[in-house]
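tl;dr need the bound structure. longer version: we got a ligand (iron/sulfur cluster) that a collaborator sent over and nobodys looked at where it sits. i said id run it. heres the input, straight from their email, havent touched it
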Amino acid sequence: MPYVVTENCVDCRFTDCVEVCPVDCFFADGNMLVIHPDECIDCGACEPACPVEAIFAVDDLPADQAKWEKINADKAMSGDLERLTESGDPLPTAEAKRAALGL
Ligand code: SF4
Ligand code: F3S
């Protein structure tokens, strides 16, 4: 039951999640992160670390976020994305997106 990054991460990429992940299974594209489903050990540490509540266990995914399970897997296993091992600056659009989300 891996964890999944969903819509709220898009245009945010706060990367607090990377800081707490014990197995470094986050990968970055231009506007979000995804979790490698075969590397995630289901520790749950990243879920409360995200300031915009973007991370869910697969079994807890809201119905309207279900598509993100496949998106995380496809992107993480594509071989095209960079593995992140350290947190960094959020995207320039992050605070505006957080405000729009009311978080
Ligand atoms: Fe990493 Fe744990 Fe989050 Fe999986 S649940 S991505 S192992 S912090
Ligand atoms: Fe994205 Fe939240 Fe991590 S915004 S980069 S899932 S801390």
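gonna send this back to them w/ a short note. The chain has a mean pLDDT of 97.
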